[in-house]
Design brief:
The structure holds two protein chains of two kinds.
Chain A: E1 5-17, E2 25-38, E3 43-47, H1 54-61, E4 69-74, E5 77-78, H2 82-91, E6 92-95, H3 109-119, H4 125-138, H5 155-167, E7 173-177, H6 185-202, E8 205-209, H7 213-219, E9 222-227, E10 230-236, H8 237-242, H9 247-254, H10 295-299, E11 305-308, E12 311-313, H11 334-351
Parallel strand pairs in A: 3-8, 3-9, 6-7, 7-8
Antiparallel strand pairs in A: 1-2, 1-4, 4-5, 9-10, 10-12, 11-12
Helix pairs in contact in A: 3-4, 3-5, 4-5, 5-6
Chain B: E1 8-19, E2 22-34, E3 39-43, H1 50-57, E4 65-74, E5 77-78, H2 84-90, E6 95-98, H3 102-105, H4 112-121, H5 129-142, H6 148-151, H7 161-173, E7 179-183, H8 191-208, E8 211-216, H9 219-225, E9 228-233, E10 236-242, H10 243-248, H11 253-261, E11 310-313, E12 316-318, H12 325-332
Parallel strand pairs in B: 3-8, 3-9, 6-7, 7-8
Antiparallel strand pairs in B: 1-2, 1-4, 4-5, 9-10, 10-12, 11-12
Bound molecules: adenosine-5'-triphosphate (2 copies) and magnesium ion (2 copies).
Chain lengths: ~350, ~325
């Protein structure tokens, strides 16, 4: 089966001046040779520290920006001309992090949701209005909300509106750039549940960008870990979390504080800061912070290579890393689990 | 005896805003103790009053807000009754605060060294410039900033987010405070940098014996750092316990909802529990228990009176007439 989305060697370099007076040009290697595929109905999560190129990758996939290099194939067809681009614009939609910034404050919610249908010439005013009602229902809002303005909604509700708008033209792939990062945890859980339900119903594929690895573990089928514009590890969620084969993935996982005081003191921190994407280190880009770095890491850039079925790592020593157990925990405490079960049961009873 | 007394005791604190729809209580009758040398974690969702609570302790509530009631006792002395001058000496002296976004609290046009020495000068007018410089470099060293001598002359924009937060901590700790209030100190940082900062706070606490109030919405950070925890909802503390007890035996339905809402790295769940609805705005609080419209255990009585924060186990308080919920569930069955 061919992938729904396939990107190959994708790059985006931004020219920048070094300083105010310095005319010499440098380039920010925001995305620097990224390849991945997403199957129908699949969620690929993109994770990594701030500035590693996640949003730039998202914008490239949406073709909101032109790639410096690389190809994008959607449903088997390379996106090169205007016709493919038009199709891509309908079949791939986006949900952004900031529900406040992504909605036009002067448009009523109904108009905002109908807008993509208008742009793509789908239906007439009447059928679009019906569809808006249906979409509002899908995301857990009421028909009368169509008449309201964005400022009348809470953050979580606005994110639901953003999702309704993205779904209006029946996309096959939805790019979610930190869709829940700005939301409170209780609301985040509602939106995460909603995204999962919608995926089940419509067979959607997601490119899901997040920096919270617990959210990623919950949402993703496969995960790609980015560092300084490149993918350093990718694999099915389960194997990647249980046995990460890149020291950077391990560092990310080991840095997460678990909601469990019994594990206290087991958080490990990675030293140093992320180097500048204008001047990435030679050899392996991670070697300046890597506890396992050897001479070869300073000289040769390790290619991303398969190290287990479906799992690839860009580390010279992927096979030699010690055992890893930072993601292992005891789970929720027994008494707490009992009460959570009662909570869930009571909630289900009330929902009828 | 004295050592068992908390360093800080907050009693009946109420902080209000006057608005077009009447008086809004951002903090509504909060009692808390901060033990010596330990960390009190305050957790809750956006708008529940965490920042207003800490700003009230510092007497930095922005107008038109004001502390309307209560006492804030630092070693028995009520900070709310100090003169403005005396309070200035407490701020940055015995009590210091750091915020989420170091960039907005650092002055972009002064070097970090100048800002640290400035903070020190405010509390020690007799020290010479050279002395202050040495002490500032010492302060940068304490927060593990590499080559502090050369960093002294850097401007905030030349530093990474993590480094800026270290500088903020260096400034806050310049006068060896007894209490550090950290309001979401790592929320804007990457997890790897967050881990560095949390480590640093813990090391500094071990070194100096200071108490910390750590405000966060992240239950992971709470579990990692806090000795005692207060869970806030809509301006009130709804549950208080040690961290170990809170996670082992959460009692308030809101705490349960929070725990059920977060995905875990060590457990698979098909669906997250989530809490229905949203936090009510402070000008439209429900009658009775403020959580009742979202609470799956709510009964008629919950809509009538506000539950008091009462012991449910040894050293464990919850403001819920349905706690422990297994007994209420049995009654329902
Ligand atoms: N228009 C631009 N011009 C120059 N540099 C840019 C531009 N857009 C992004 N960058 C740089 O490219 C790099 C990648 O940015 P990007 O926004 O993709 O990161 P990200 O992984 O989404 O980060 P975050 O987690 O903070 O959202 C960063 O160093 C950023 O400063
Ligand atoms: N200037 C103001 N006028 C009226 N109400 C205000 C004002 N500033 C804050 N509030 C209210 O006080 C309440 C508590 O705010 P606070 O900033 O303490 O919340 P918080 O728990 O720190 O939230 P967050 O997690 O978002 O930082 C909020 O409901 C807010 O609406
Ligand atoms: Mg981004
Ligand atoms: Mg706050």
């Amino acid at each position: 089966m061919s992938a729904l989305l396939q990107v190959e060697g994708l790059a985006k370099h931004y020219p920048v001046k070094h300083g105010v007076l310095d005319r010499a040009q440098g380039v920010v290697r925001a995305v620097d040779g990224v390849s991945f595929a997403i199957a129908r109905g699949e969620t690929l999560a993109l994770v990594g520290e701030s500035g590693c190129g996640k949003s730039t990758t998202a914008r490239l996939v949406l073709r909101l920006i032109e790639p410096t290099a690389g190809t994008i194939r959607f449903d088997g067809v390379e996106v090169s001309g205007a016709a493919e681009l038009r199709a891509l614009r309908r079949r791939v939609q986006v949900v952004f992090q900031d529900p406040y910034a992504s909605l036009n404050p002067r448009l009523r919610v109904g108009e905002a949701i109908a807008e993509p249908m208008e742009v793509h010439g789908i239906g007439d005013a009447r059928s679009r209005a019906d569809r808006v009602k249906e979409l509002l229902g899908l995301v857990g809002l009421a028909p009368f909300h169509a008449q309201r303005y964005p400022h009348e909604f809470s953050g979580g509700q606005r994110q639901r509106i953003g999702i309704a708008r993205a779904l209006a033209v029946q996309p096959e792939l939805v790019v979610c750039d930190e869709p829940v990062s700005a939301l409170d945890v209780s609301i985040q859980a509602q939106v995460v549940n909603l995204l999962k339900d919608l995926q089940g119903r419509f067979g959607l594929s997601y490119l899901f960008i997040a920096h919270d690895l617990a959210v990623v573990r919950h949402m993703a089928d496969r995960v790609a870990v980015m560092y300084l514009g490149q993918i350093v590890e990718t694999g099915p969620k389960r194997t990647l979390f249980a046995n990460p084969r890149h020291p950077y993935t391990r560092a990310l996982l080991a840095a997460i504080p678990h909601p469990d005081p019994r594990r206290r003191g087991r958080v490990q921190h990675l030293g140093g800061d992320v180097p500048s994407p204008m001047n990435p280190p030679p050899g392996c880009r991670f070697h300046t912070r890597c506890p396992y770095a050897q001479a070869i890491c300073r000289e040769q850039a390790p290619p991303l290579r398969e190290v287990a079925p479906g799992q690839a790592s860009a580390c010279h020593f992927a096979e030699d890393l010690p055992r890893f157990d930072a993601a292992v925990g005891e789970g929720i405490a027994p008494r707490a689990a009992e009460r959570l079960a009662l909570y869930a049961a009571a909630k289900a009873r009330r929902a009828g | 005896m004295r050592d068992n007394a908390p360093l800080l005791r907050i009693e009946g604190l109420r902080t209000v805003f006057r608005s077009s729809v009447g008086e809004i209580a951002a903090v509504d009758g909060v009692d808390l103790d901060v033990p010596r040398g330990r960390t009190l974690g305050i957790v809750g969702e956006s708008g529940c009053g965490k920042s207003m609570l800490s700003l009230s302790v510092m007497r930095l509530v922005p107008p038109p807000g004001r502390v309307a009631q209560g006492r804030v006792l630092l070693e028995g002395q009520d900070l709310l009754r100090l003169s403005a001058g005396a309070m200035r000496q407490v701020r940055g002296g015995k009590v210091a605060m750091i915020f989420q976004e170091p960039m907005t609290s650092l002055n972009p046009v002064h070097s970090v060294g100048a800002q640290i020495t400035e903070a020190m000068r405010a509390h020690d007018k007799s020290a010479s410039g050279a002395e202050l410089r040495d002490r500032a470099i010492e302060a940068l060293k304490r927060v593990r900033i590499p080559s502090p001598e050369s960093r002294f002359d850097d401007y905030p924009h030349q530093l990474s987010g993590g480094m800026r937060q270290r500088v903020m901590i260096a400034m806050a700790l310049a006068c060896r405070p007894q209490l550090l209030i950290a309001d979401e100190p790592t929320t804007a940082l990457d997890v790897t940098v967050q881990a560095q900062i949390l480590d640093l706070l813990r090391e500094l606490q071990d070194e100096t014996g200071m108490s910390i109030i750590l405000i966060t919405h992240d239950l992971g950070v709470i579990a990692e750092m806090a000795d005692e925890v207060a869970v806030m909802y809509a301006g009130k503390v709804v549950e208080r316990a040690t961290a170990a007890e809170l996670f082992a035996s959460p009692q308030h339905p809101y705490t349960l909802g929070l725990l059920g809402s977060i995905p875990r790295l060590d457990e698979d769940r098909e669906r997250l529990l989530a809490i229905e609805g949203a936090v009510p705005p402070p000008f439209a609080l429900p009658k009775g228990c403020r959580f009742h419209p979202r609470c799956p255990f709510a009964i008629e009585a919950c809509t009538r009176a506000q539950p008091a924060l009462e012991p449910v186990a040894d050293g464990h308080l919850a403001a819920c007439i349905r706690a422990p919920v297994e007994q209420s569930a049995e009654l329902a069955a």
